[in-house]
Design brief:
Elements lengths: L5 E3 L2 E3 L3 E4 L6 H11 L3 E5 L24 E5 L6 H14 L5 E4 L12 H13 L3 E6 L3 H10 L3 E4 L13 H10 L5 E3 L5 H10 L3 E4 L1 H4 L4 H21 L29
Parallel strand pairs: 3-4, 3-10, 4-5, 6-7, 7-8, 9-10
Antiparallel strand pairs: 1-2
Helix pairs in contact: 1-8, 2-3, 3-4, 4-5, 6-8
Length: 269
């Protein structure tokens, strides 16, 4: 069977599930959930997670090695282009020249919705500085196309508000984005359970990213396993091509030709 991989910033990955490293009870649980998810790419909030900034605290690097997983540092917690660019450059320094970064700029600390004007400004600067930029963005197909044209390696429209678990609130916009851009589209934010991930993949998304859905589950390890299976099932369903929806069957599901019939109609009772 042909391996169904996807390419991100020139590197091929077999897992289409990306997972975060925050919000777990400890680094041991973080690692266990990541391994169970089958993810190859892990996101790291540089402003919240120790990867060497504090030598006196436990480091994620000791539990989730960059030699084993691709690190995707993100700028979560930033509210301006200037802060995001500075954070991305810090990540590059801490990770020995690592160029891949997930850009996140929030408009409000209460809902974490993306601030798109600041996001576009930061994208322009980071791309010019040689970063491979993946962008957390609104589900606006016009702005998604703008991000592709600016040189992003992937766009990551939200399914719903970060941490809400509300699932995909506007599948039509996600479909519009998928129809008009050629870089990978990763569903980001708002996934709550396995069916949300499967629907995202059935729409045609290249991958799904999540953190809260795993870390806040009653059993994060079991949920990680469920998400791995859901992403694969959704991808298989997308590739298989679903049957069209109908209000009723236009024809019988079983053929009627070639069946044995009596020559005379049954007598009336």
């Amino acid at each position: 069977m042909t391996i169904d991989s996807f390419v991100l910033a020139g590197k091929s990955y077999q897992s289409r599930l990306l997972v975060g490293t925050g919000k777990y009870k400890d680094f041991e649980q973080t690692r266990e959930a990541i391994v169970e998810s089958g993810a190859e790419i892990v996101t790291v909030a540089i402003r919240r997670t120790n990867i060497g900034q504090d030598a006196n605290e436990a480091s994620l690097l000791d539990y989730v090695s960059p030699k084993e997983f691709t690190y995707l540092p993100n700028t979560a917690g930033c509210f301006s282009a200037a802060d995001a660019v500075r954070t991305a450059r810090l990540a590059r320094e801490l990770l020995d020249g690592h160029q891949l970064v997930k850009l996140e700029i929030f408009g409000s600390p209460t809902n974490l919705y993306p601030n798109m004007p600041e996001t576009l400004a930061a994208t322009k600067e980071l791309v010019a500085d040689g970063f491979d930029v993946m962008v957390y963005c609104s589900d606006d197909p016009v702005q998604a196309k703008m991000l592709e044209d600016m040189g992003c390696v992937a766009v990551m429209p939200l399914a719903s508000i970060i941490g809400s678990g509300m699932g995909i609130l506007n599948p039509w916009n996600i479909r519009l984005i998928l129809d008009q851009i050629s870089v990978p589209v990763l569903l980001d934010a708002g996934v709550g359970t396995a069916s949300d991930a499967a629907i995202g993949m059935e729409l045609g998304c290249d991958a799904v990213l999540m953190n809260s859905a795993l870390a806040y589950a009653n059993d994060p390890i079991r949920m990680a396993r469920a998400m791995r299976r859901a992403v694969q099932a959704g991808r298989d369903a997308y590739l298989a091509g679903r049957m069209p929806k109908k209000h009723y069957l236009a024809e019988a599901s079983s053929p009627t030709t070639g069946l044995i019939h009596t020559s005379a109609a049954p007598a009336a009772k």
